[in-house]
Amino acid sequence: MMQYRELTAARLRVSRMGLGLAALGRPGYITLGHGQDMAGRYDTAAMEEHTFSMLDAAWQAGIRYFDVARSYGRAEKFLGSWLRGRNISEGAAVVGSKWGYTYTANWQVQAREHEVKQHSLQQLDKQREESNLLLGGYLDLYQIHSATLESGVLDNKLVLDRLHALKMHGLLIGLTLSGPRQAETLQRALEIRFGGERLFDVVQATWNLLEQSAGPALAQAHAAGLGILVKEGLANGRLTTRNQEAAFADKRALLQQLSDETGYSFDALALAAILAQPWADVVLSGAATPEQLRSNLVALRVGLTPEQLQRLQGLAEEPERYWTTRSQLEWN
Fold first, then answer.
1. In which domain, by residue range, is 287 found?
2. How far apart are CA 272 and CA 21, in angstroms?
3. pTM above 0.90, yes or no
4. Distance CA 237, CA 110 (A)
5. 325: in domain
6. What is the mean pLDDT of residues 260-267?
7. Coiled-coil annotation: which residues (predicted)?
8. 42 occurs within a structural domain
9. Is residue 168 very low, low, confident or very high in pLDDT (cuts 50, 70, 90)?
10. Alpha-carbon distance 247 to 111, whole Å?
11. 173: which of 25, 70, 128, 130 lies 20 to 30 Å off by Cα?
């Protein structure tokens, strides 16, 4: 079932769907119903065992791209241990991680702060060393976590010089985007060059049926040779049957109508709409259970007609509204 694609600039073969460990490496996350998925099993040994089972299921399904970050609790540790424990050779899987946020929840579901953002050179050097210790030669791609124009990271010469040095030593360099100004941030990133060559090889952005504003900029970046990774394809669970908010009733009715027509679940339809975008190289599943992963993977065989795709894309919200709603989701 799995499909594969080569990232143009990176020359890496990746699976069209990847597995993100944001909801697996720490007890709390903002996905709707996450607490239900974890069933209260929050001790580190149980969570590591659960993550291993998810990684095994992903590997068996053909997934070869795995996404972690320094702020995802023990996600890098779990992934590195799994790769070594399963004797998976370096290069057989493609691993991307991120720097810029520090995990601060102390293994608690509820915390005053779950992660703290800092885009300094000191943070880059510190977290790069930590990622290297946990992932070693498995790490292919290192990304600025949630680069924004407001953070100033794309104008920090010391940081950019260090990232270029890492690139010269063979590490792919990327950035992830968030917020209503994703497109503007990406445009700025595309301007950053060293000796005529773009600094960034890959960009990871939020694009889903509710938040489509970055689409034209992602298409431009893809045409320029950047690999495109798509995160939050299910809008942290808002594009699943778990979303019972009254304000979502009309959108839920449309999804149900298309689900009845096609026989596919909400999540499969939403992810298939992303896979239908020619610029989308990898679509990340944020599944926290094997059942969710299997349901997400059905998207690979969904054949949407142009008319169905157009109807689905009619679910889009204004970016400001989308990001305001996302900021109000509860850690659970």
1. 8-318
2. 20
3. yes
4. 19
5. no
6. 98
7. none
8. yes
9. very high
10. 28
11. 25
pLDDT at 169: 95
145 domain residue, yes or no: yes
Look up residue 176 and give its two tokens. Answer: 């992830």
pLDDT in tens, 56-85: 999 999 999 999 999 999 999 999 999 999
Q: Is the distance from CB of 299 to CB of 276 less than 8 angstroms?
A: no
**Which pair of structure tokens corresponds to residue 8?**
């143009």
With vertex at residue 199, the alpha carbon angle to CA 193 and CA 203, rounded to the nearest 5 degrees, is: 130
240 contact partners, CB below 8 Å, separation of at least 6? 32, 234, 266, 267, 270
Token pair recorded at residue 33: 């119903």
Q: HEC string of the chain?
A: CCCEEEECCCCEEEECEEEECCCCCCCCCCCCCHHHHHCCCCCHHHHHHHHHHHHHHHHHCCCCEEECCCCCCCHHHHHHHHHHHCCCCECCEEEEEEECEEECCCCCCCCCCCEEECCCHHHHHHHHHHHHHHHHHHEEEEEEEEECCCCCHHHCHHHHHHHHHHHHCCCEEEEEECCCCHHHHHHHHHCCEECCEECCCEEEEECCCCCCCCHHHHHHHHHCCCEEEEECCCHHHCCCCCCCCHHHHHHHHHHHHHHHHHCCCHHHHHHHHHHCCCCCCEEEECCCCHHHHHHHHHHHHCCCCHHHHHHHHCCCCCHHHHHHHHHCCCCC
Residue given tokens 């065992």 in the structure block: 49
Q: Take residue 180 and report the two structure tokens written for it.
A: 């209503």
Within 10 Å of residue 10's Cβ, how many Cβ atoms? 20
Number of structural domains (the chain) is 1
Residue 305 lies in a domain: yes
* Distance in angstroms (rounded) separating the CA atoms of residues 141 and 144: 10
What's the token pair of residue 222?
Answer: 């893809």
